[in-house]
Q: What sequence folds into this?
């Protein structure tokens, strides 16, 4: 479960203020399904939408109607676009390449 500080930060990101019960210090309120879905997405980016929906207590189709969730999911997808790809050989040599370039490597000619 989210700590009070994390819940407050999540609320700020979503543009909502803490409920009156929380402001009055009466304990911790239940988070919305959207907030739970975003928290699950953050903690488990590899989960399917169905699994995230189950953790948030809603239907997977409902996730696509949640503006905050769709924005977070798009940002998560976009964030991985600039990660370089590559491989490491058994001797420790690292070879990396950029998938965004379309230039093919050409061997120099002898002419």
A:
């Amino acid at each position: 479960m989210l700590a009070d500080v994390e819940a407050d930060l999540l609320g700020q990101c979503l543009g909502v203020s803490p409920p009156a019960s929380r402001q009055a210090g009466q304990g911790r309120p239940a988070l919305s399904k959207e907030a739970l879905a975003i928290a699950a997405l953050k903690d488990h980016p590899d989960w399917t939408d169905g699994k995230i929906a189950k953790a948030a207590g809603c239907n997977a189709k409902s996730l696509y109607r949640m503006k905050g969730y769709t924005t977070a999911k798009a940002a998560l997808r976009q964030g991985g676009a600039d990660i370089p790809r590559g491989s490491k050989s058994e001797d420790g040599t690292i070879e990396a390449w950029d998938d965004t370039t379309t230039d093919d490597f050409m061997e120099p000619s002898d002419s």
Q: What stands out?
A: Residues 4-84 form one domain. The two ends are 68 Å apart (CA to CA). The beta strands are 85-88, 94-97.
